[in-house]
Structures are given as structure tokens and as C-alpha cells.
Amino acid sequence: MTELPSVRGAEVGRRIGVGLMYGLWKPRVLGAWRVPTTGPVIFAVNHSHAIDGPMVMGVAPRPTHFLIKKEAFVGPLDPFLTGIGQLKVDRDTTDRTAITRALGVLDNGGVLGIFPEGTRGEGDFASLRAGLAYFAVRSGAPIVPVAVLGSSDRPGRLIKGLPPLRSRVDVVFGEPFDAGDGSGRRTRKALDEATGRIQKQLAAHLENARRLTRR
């Protein structure tokens, strides 16, 4: 039986994230009240820079288990990330262990964090992988779009890939929505259709978030 990630560990990770994110930057959190207080939820987060995951983990109103590429689990980070309830995933194969553990998080009423673009990019949700649709349709969990704005490289940064210390980073939570069409189908065609619906919702949220934050 596959061991599920630690819920208590994820809460510890959230508390660590709160201290780090508010200590190093100036997070401005908008729409956190939209996140369902109970039951399974999937955070779909745009991803342009390294602090996006830790930032969401720290400011989200609920502890979050992120699917994180296995390459990040190196040296002392391996036991640390595992200890705070994060999920190691091999992006080069169908990682059934990661899939089972992620579905277990949702079956237990937890929050699963996903970067639907698969890797760091422009952070504009332009290219989505089918994994997000699979987890949403398979579990029935609502998706909450999350836009992280201001984490991109800018003049004044001390470390490449990170925003300048004490600069503002906006995290905007959107309205929850269901990815499925109500039929319960999990065929490739159904997942492709769900991915299309998800992409439109996430792109619209990002546009609204940029308008709201003027970024």
C-alpha cells in the first residue's frame, strides 16, 4: 500500500513558508476566501520562477501537497520536502506512485498543488499537460486557479531567478470550478476536452488577476 504524504507535515511546511515568504518578500494575498474550507481541492498555479510553489504553500489558507519534480529532491532537500508532505514526481514517465499518492491526498479531502504547465515557463497557462484534467476528473475535486505575479526576474535581484528581497509578490486565488462535463467519462477525448475547458478558465483568471493587480 502506498504511503500518503503527511498532512501534519504539510501544515508544518505552511508555517515555515509563512515565515520565509513574509520575512523575505511582501506577499499580497487576494481571494483566499474563495478556497473551500473543507473537502478536496486542486490548486492550479502558474509557474515562472522558483518561489511560486513555496509562496503559495506559505500564504494558502490550507496546507498544500505539491507535485514537485524529482530533480528538486536532492541532498538534504529530499527528506525535508518529503517531511513537509510534498510529492516527488518523475516527469519523464507515468509515475504511478506519485499519481496514487496525489489521488490519495484528494480522497482524504486534502489540497493538491499542481503546476499544470509542467515546468517553469512564461507562467501564462498557455500550454497545459493533461495531468491536471486527469486528477480533477478522476477525483471530482474542484480546481482553484492561482496566479502568482511579481515573482519574475527584475532589476535589483540578489539571486538569479528570485524577485528582489522585500519586493511585493501578488498571489490571487480564483473561483473554484469543475473540470468535468458531468458525465464522469475518463477517456482520452474527455480529458482533452476537460484540458481545453481548464485552459480557458485559467487564462481568464490570469487576465483578471493582472488587471486587478496592474501587473
UniProtKB/TrEMBL annotation:
InterPro entries on file: Plipid/glycerol_acylTrfase
Recorded GO MF terms: acyltransferase activity
Pfam families cross-referenced by the UniProt entry: Acyltransferase
Matching SUPFAM superfamilies: Glycerol-3-phosphate (1)-acyltransferase (SSF69593)
Highest taxon above the source species: Bacteria
Alphabetical keyword list: Acyltransferase, Transferase
SMART domains the UniProt entry points to: PlsC
Keyword Transferase: yes
Domain Phospholipid/glycerol acyltransferase as annotated: residue spans: 41-151
Protein name: 1-acyl-sn-glycerol-3-phosphate acyltransferase
